Structure formats: C-alpha cells, structure tokens
C-alpha cells in the first residue's frame, strides 16, 4: 500500500526571520565599533587655515600626545607608545614599500615645540623627503543677519 499524505504539503519557502535578526545585531555592532576605529591617538590639534591635502593614499601619521609620547599609525598596535628607534624602523619599512606615501605629524597643541621637531627628525632619518602637519580648521566666523 502506498502512503498518501492528507492535507499537508511541503513548504518550499525559506524562513528569513532569523537572518533579519542576525543582520540587525551586526548592524548594531558596526554602529557601536565604527566611532572607535578612529586613526591614532587623541590629540588636541592646533588651529590653522591651511588647505587639506588631496591624496588617495593612507598617510603615515606620527602622533605626539600631550605628555610627549610618540605613536605611529602603522603596525599592529597604533595606540601603544613607541620609542624613537621603533618609529624610525617602522617608518623606514613603510617608506621603503611606498616612497610616495604622505608623511604627517600630528602634534598636541600643548606639547613642547622641541618634541615635535624631534618627531620630524625621526621621520627624516627614516627616509621621509617631505613631512606635513595635521591641524584643525579655523572656526568659521558667525554671520549676523539683520
């Protein structure tokens, strides 16, 4: 005897509700972690009216914080202070791979000028031909409407 199914048919649709739940959880995770992925260390930058650079390459950024510690955005630990020798070695390796990479110094507004100059000298010893500075833009003047 053949078995006959009575009234029940197989469903050929995929249940997408679990996929939507996973997608929403991932969206929330990305929304929380995206602001944490900023480049480098928190530095109070000086204000200047300079024009931004037009470069498609990710720059090599040497940060000098308020205490005078040096950080390089290249490597596995960009938020860990490095010695001058470590920075010179990492910067030389990055410049050897791509000699045209933009090299920038991001110095805190309250750090001694001599420490920023030392950072520039480290980058020049590593092989950087041109070193630029990162600054915050000047505040826009408020216009009065009458």
CATH overall fold name of the domain at 47-137: Nucleotidyltransferase, domain 5
Question: Which class do the helix and strand fractions yield?
Answer: alpha/beta
- Provide the spatial order of strands within the biggest beta sheet: 3-2-4-5
Beta-strand content: 5-15%
Q: Strand tally, please?
A: 6
If classified by CATH, what would the architecture of the domain at 47-137 be?
2-Layer Sandwich
Shape: elongated
Biggest β-sheet description: 4 strands, mixed
Residue share in helix: 25-40%
What does this structure look like?
The chain is α/β, with parallel strands linked by helices and 146 residues long. The protein has a domain of 91 residues: 2-Layer Sandwich (Nucleotidyltransferase, domain 5). Helices cover 31% and strands 13% of the residues. It has three helices and six strands. It has a four-stranded mixed beta sheet with strand order 3-2-4-5, covered by helices on one side. Strands 1-6 form a two-stranded parallel ribbon. α2 crosses α3. It is elongated and about 85 Å long. It starts with 16 loop residues before the first helix and ends in a 9-residue tail after the last strand.
């Amino acid at each position: 005897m053949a078995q006959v199914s009575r009234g029940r048919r197989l469903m050929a649709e995929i249940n997408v509700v679990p996929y939507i739940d996973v997608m929403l959880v991932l969206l929330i995770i990305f929304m929380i972690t995206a602001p944490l992925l900023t480049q480098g260390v928190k530095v109070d930058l000086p204000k200047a009216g300079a024009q931004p650079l037009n470069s498609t390459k990710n720059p090599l950024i040497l940060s000098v914080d308020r205490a005078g510690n040096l950080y390089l955005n290249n490597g596995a630990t960009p938020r860990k202070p490095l010695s001058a020798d470590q920075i010179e070695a990492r910067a030389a390796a990055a410049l050897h791979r791509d000699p045209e990479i933009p090299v920038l110094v991001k110095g805190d507004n309250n750090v001694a000028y001599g420490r920023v100059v030392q950072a520039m000298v480290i980058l020049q010893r590593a092989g950087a031909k041109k070193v630029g500075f990162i600054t915050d833009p000047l505040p826009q003047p408020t216009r009065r409407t009458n």
